[in-house]
Amino acid sequence: MRALSRVVTLVYAKALPRFHTLTPQNEPLSGIPVHYYGCAHCDFIFTTRCDNWAKEDFNLNIYNDRYVEVDPYFVEVGPINQAKWSEQQYPLLKGLKILDFGPGTGFFASWLNSRRWDVSFYDPFCVDSVVPEQGT
Q1: Same domain, 57 and 113
Q2: 30, part of any domain
Q3: Phi, psi of 65 (to 5 degrees)
Q4: Cα–Cα–Cα angle for 66, 68, 74, nearest 5°?
Q5: Is 62 domain-assigned?
Q6: pTM exceeds 0.85 for this model
Q7: Which CB contacts under 8 angstroms, 24+ apart, belong to 20-25?
Q8: pLDDT value of position 103
């Protein structure tokens, strides 16, 4: 088992519009702590702040109408850059069926599919997302 260490405690998080400090309106800190933890061996960083949230909590606090204000690259630029990087780093995956879980709009999968990949996607927090059929 790899060791975990508490790496930082913040009162905001970049991906959480209601908790963020640098929105275009420079809103004040929310005062809601978001504790982050990290693996001492692989640098994986995570939070348990949202572990008990329901889908409605995510939609209210994260994936709301203001999400793009905090992450303007979310819609197109970020997914395209990630898809290009994935295509370069993992060319042997092109012949496999891939499931992108949690892709937001699905633009990452759509871009790779336009380049003859076989990527299905599902995001439980995206209104337009449909559970892929078994085997896809």
Answers
A1: no
A2: yes
A3: -65, -20
A4: 150
A5: yes
A6: no
A7: 20/70, 23/66, 23/69, 23/70, 24/69
A8: 82
Give the structural domain span for 101. Answer: 77-122
Taking the chain (136 residues) in runs of 10, the rounded mean pLDDT of each run is 40 41 53 78 81 85 76 82 91 90 85 93 75 69
Asked if residue 63 and residue 11 are part of one domain, the reply reads yes
Residue positions counted in the chain = 136
pLDDT of residue 88: 92
Domain-located, residue 49: yes
Of 51, 49, 52, 54, the residue nearest 16 (C-alpha): 49
